[in-house]
Amino acid sequence: MRKIPFRPRSDKQISQTFNDGFVKLYSVQDTAEIGRMPVKRETLVVQLDYENRSVGSSQFYQAAQAQIKIEKVIRVQRRPGIDTKMTAELEDGTKYDVARVQLITDCRPASLDLTLTEYSQAEDQTEEQEDD
After folding, report:
1. Does residue 118 form part of some domain?
2. pTM for the predicted model, two decimal places
């Protein structure tokens, strides 16, 4: 039988389950020589379990106004060093850019909501420039 942790009634925090999959978070650095085209180098920082979240309608429309397409919002356990200069890779191999990191304080364990957008690569940008 599964045991649920005891929490006093005055504690209104919610227990989080991170059982929707796992995500690998990579830091992205430009390794090109000065004056050359950018070359992205990704370094694995951490692998975490996540929970899918729904995108709020106001968040969706604000992103659309800024011409950003939100692909997914996930909740992960809070870790130091997670920021918007990272990329996220889900267990199925799809990659996303981390567009927003929100601290969630009313749950246990302390968590972060990561807003994921379409993944962009430097190689894609150079191909577009060559076509023009």
Report:
1. yes
2. 0.73
